[in-house]
Design brief:
homotrimer; mainly alpha; Ammonium transporter fold; 3-stranded mixed beta sheet; 3 strands; 68% helix; globular
Chain lengths: 487, 487, 487
């Protein structure tokens, strides 16, 4: 028994080997070839992107090409695309020596995930019953980007501590879970969540936090010297922050209803974000000696208003309602960075590199609750009859649903998102603990040297010192492994 | 009497205390709560962003959602939004140790200002007489961004020398003045200024320059070691430059007339900007030993063509007219950096950190003059009857106005902008001289250490030296204060 | 005879003088004034950007301003604009001490080239036979940006080795050649190439490579210490990469047909780019010790899928077809960086700083072939009758053309692009070898000090050493000149 335990421990704790020369290309090739085959079997253009569009126009009395959904949604799509690749990517460049990994792995898993998302979401939402094939158009590629966002949020908790192969596994399962969760929330429960407070942010954040909890690294402080920022890496991160902040109105309005739906979603998000900025600066200044602002807060908590408007942005939440949401979220999120993240790391063994609990989890839950309340209190006097039906899609089998019932379903949707995030994260976390994924050792975290050819900087003289500290770290690690295996 | 003078001097000149731990959060909270209350009382969705849009469509025989103003203006709005936050923000990161302040305070005051702008501009332009409430839509949030731009321009003159609390006061008054000035120019005088050569640039620049003149710091050269750039900070600033440059056609066309108005404004601005680049490179090279180019010119003067097309972009200024405007402005603006800024600093006691006099003031005035001339020479043969009426909005009570009269009113508009900038700046400047705003001492300017937690750079070894020089600076300052108080 | 040869060699090899104080301003001024005159003579607004638009609407029964082409294409135009200035510009900031030159000269020649492109393309494509004038609108300014892209690609091969004056000459001839080549391919041969695999990428790349071959610098390794990147310059380059990658769907769809054409082009490009990323990471990891990724590959080869979809994006290439194209191009392009670029430098005397052969030449040719095959295999069953006619523009004098014939013409188009690139490049290369263009000496390449006022970096201490190595380099150079002249 003791032998077995020792053996197990040896299996789980053996010296880390972050060589991904076989595993990364293997996963990439196998996967990409599988994608090509599956797309060949299942994915076709929809009627608006197919060359038969001109015939479709005649049949449906569409008078102008401008009625093609492309022109309603393409500008928003491009903004969302920027958020996914530059926004999330550069937000994660803040670490002094993990900028390549931050922006580079974000690039890899987003490009990887969006293909799988087109398939998974397609099977659930865009399957043409006539021929059993997925018909894709502009809305599908926006949704694929949204789906990827969930996994990129999860990456935020794990930044610097996982290998690219682990990230691909995380993404593969994350997209799958997302598509199922989204189907249950949006279609089974008929919940409205255009900007994804529940579907994207709550799910993604709890998925990542649970994985981070399972991959807890007790000796992570061996990498402490690389876990902070330098001056210019903080400026790089501001590029990510600002593109996320500016384009969040497009995120929340991208797949909202044509016309007033998109229009209102953009305005509400714009207002909530502005209020978040003000309260973030306030709390950040209030919490520090001499009122000095902390870049971590400015880079992250300013965005919380956008997260929290994900559900309610398309509702008639009113302009001051949006400001109140942003006001609260800036406070909650900054407070999270000051108090909750250190607490979680110390007492709950959750290491959350980017603080996604503060930026996505709490504001996401808050936004879901706001959405449920806003939906429950909707009325014909505010929306007009037609407006109410359109906004909540009270049509077909849902024609009898009342706003109050809708509020209840919205709340149920939040529970589904939480459950999928936590249970899914637990399962995937255990898979990621398998010892062959090539993750770095505790003293090698937050370091691009592990997975990247890093140029020698003439400008930084003390690489010798740094290198030595690494060697020392490695020796210690080997010795600790030796001890474990002896026991 | 001598006592009183000494007391006064003591009051105005007492040792600076840049601690904003109480004042910054207090202003943020009070202000944000006031905004929520005022929005609750006054701001509602307009007919295109309200859920009653579907009913509005029926009533007005609008056949398609694509006719919602959102689809005419949202892409331009997002471009303008990028200019405000990334464009202005990163343009101000060029200082070697004030990048956090450049991009961060820009973020704060833009998010702060746009809320106040929605209210102030709403009261003047979008008040619904039926219920006394402001109805907002996409055009209002573009205008709010425009309004904020005026204050960000003013910030350019003061970069590195003021506290965030001062910036918020500057913004609060700036937005207020802007809204009044804009009302007088656009509504009372019925002047056309879609891209704001007068309303935004001339006003903003003279507002900032006047404040800078009143806040003159005779001992600013104590911060001389931080008043320049480093290699990478200049590259960061180019991000700002390029996003401003690329999206300026959207800026000048964002609120122009639907159809040919927006189309022509974009093309004219595109051309003027291209010509500015060429003459900026020419003058920059001509002025230096061995023809070496100066990044300051490239970062700023290349944009002058966009500023100068703010008024005339939507007119039939012709394509070569646009090129001529850009040609002249590139020369004027670069010349300003070479000659006028040093002159103003030395002889007129105006310290203009970003050179807004060259980028906004001179090209703005130039653009207003160009606009007046273009308007005065407009004719039905060039515009067509309907085109002339639409372009200059010669409708209703203005149906009798001739192009020549319009030219005169355009010139009058410039005077209003100048007057508001200078007089408003003088008043606000004196308010900002009050000694409790937390501005830095003369030897502490251009330094993020004052208001930000700055990460320690391993890469830069000599912080000890730097720190010492600060200490020396501080001692000198205290001594000089001591002397003043004794007298 | 020996005397003449020595004299010639002396003429061609005399000590380089990179002083552009006279030549750069002279070219800029002469050229910009010429542009103003030519625009005055030839360029007018088209019917959609002219103030007569409202009359045009009545005459053509256009019911809404939204039918103005501006609203179909402006969002794509802005994305293309970002690719040209930020995308290409920042992609070229990767060198440790040539970021100013990378982004700055890119800015100069793009602004310079687009004016000339409007004229040259206008004469060939947009000449109004009624009055002999060029009528420009949104599509023209997109095409001008496209045209400039060809020259910026060529700049990639020469980065760090040429003077700004040489770049302007290169651009002047490049735009001219481009316009003729494009006219032959698109109009004479009636070939489809919306995203320019042939017209832009193949032409631009071979134009640049041929020039680089003629300007071969045998002693370029004297600048070896500056030919690499540093940590932060690689992150800056990722800004360029990502904006190119994200907006490539806009590039390929910007001038595609309204409706399904633009819609499909965007989707196909989106998919091909995603697949490129996966195979680029795979090959990059596979090729290095311990699977370490190389930033050069990630920055460049990930984009190859977009290049290769330039021709076929608007066709019914199918979604899996797009993935296959991206799959192949990621492999080809990364392989190029690993094997072909070093081979070309060593054995073919082609020094290709940015590896444009891998990013533009090979994927461009590949894309042209893919386009020819896709066109040749098109059928009415896939496109529908009307769809086939619209997609390939089988109208008027081309009404009888079959898909198979179209495939042949597409292949002919590729040959034209190659011929123009290589022959044009050879001619321009010899012009650029003239000794008065101010290019840097072999030991001065990749160094911003030559053409820019570079701020002193406090952070980098060893400029003294660097300066010395320059001096040594210069001495050697002078001595070798001396030897040559003596012989």
């Amino acid at each position: 028994m003791g032998n077995f335990a020792a053996c197990c421990r040896g299996f789980w704790c053996k010296a880390k080997n972050p060589d991904v020369r076989v595993s990364l290309p293997a996963v990439c090739f196998v996967w990409q070839i599988a994608m090509i085959i599956l797309f060949g079997l299942f994915v076709r253009y929809d009627e608006e992107s197919d060359a038969h569009w001109s015939e479709h126009k005649h049949e449906n009395n569409i008078t102008s090409d401008i009625e093609n959904d492309f022109y309603y949604r393409y500008p928003s799509f491009q903004d969302v695309h920027v958020m996914i690749f530059v926004g999330f990517g550069f937000l994660m460049t803040f670490l002094k020596r993990y900028s390549f990994g931050g922006v580079g792995f974000n690039f890899l898993i987003a490009a990887f995930g969006l293909q799988w998302a087109l398939l998974m979401q397609g099977w659930f939402h865009s399957l043409d019953p006539a021929d059993g094939q997925i018909k894709i158009g502009i809305e599908n590629i926006i949704n694929a980007d949204f789906c990827v966002a969930g996994c990129l949020i999860a990456y935020g908790a794990l930044l610097g501590k996982v290998s690219p192969v682990q990230l691909m596994v995380l993404t593969l399962f994350g997209i799958t879970l997302f598509a199922v969760e989204e189907y249950i929330i949006l279609h089974v429960l008929h919940v409205r969540d255009a900007g994804g407070s529940m579907v994207i942010h709550t799910f993604g954040a709890y998925y990542g936090l649970t994985i981070s909890w399972i991959l807890y690294r007790p000796k992570l402080n061996q990498s402490k010297n690389l876990s902070g920022s330098v001056y210019h890496s903080d400026v790089f991160a501001m590029i990510g922050t600002l593109f996320l902040w500016m384009f969040w109105p497009s995120f929340n309005s991208a797949i909202a209803d044509h016309g007033d739906g998109q229009h209102r979603a953009a305005i509400n998000t714009y207002l909530a974000l502005a209020a978040s900025v003000i309260t973030t600066f306030a709390i950040s200044s209030l919490s520090a000696k001499r009122g000095k602002l902390d870049m971590v807060h400015i880079q992250n908590a300013t965005l919380a208003g956008g997260v929290a408007m994900g559900t309610a942005a398309e509702f008639m939440i009113t302009t001051y309602g949006s400001l109140i949401v942003g006001f609260c979220c800036g406070i909650i999120s900054t407070f999270g960075y000051l108090v909750i993240t250190p607490f979680m790391e110390k007492y709950m063994k959750i290491q959350d590199t980017c603080g996604i609990h503060n930026l996505h989890a709490m504001p996401g839950v808050f936004g879901a609750v706001v959405g449920a309340i806003t939906a429950a209190t909707a009325s014909e006097s505010v929306y007009g009859h037609e407006g109410l039906v359109n906004t909540f899609d009270f049509k077909g089998e849902y024609a009898e649903r009342t706003p109050a019932m809708q509020g209840g379903f919205q709340a149920a949707g939040l529970c589904v998102a939480l459950a999928f995030g936590i249970v899914g994260g637990a399962i995937v976390g255990f898979i990621l603990r398998l010892p062959f994924w090539g993750d770095p050792s505790d003293d090698n975290c937050f370091d691009d040297e592990v997975y990247w050819e890093v140029p020698e900087d003439e400008e930084s003289l003390p690489p010798i010192l740094e290198y030595n500290s690494h060697m020392v770290g490695k020796n210690t690690d080997m010795m600790s492994n030796f001890t474990v295996e002896q026991s």
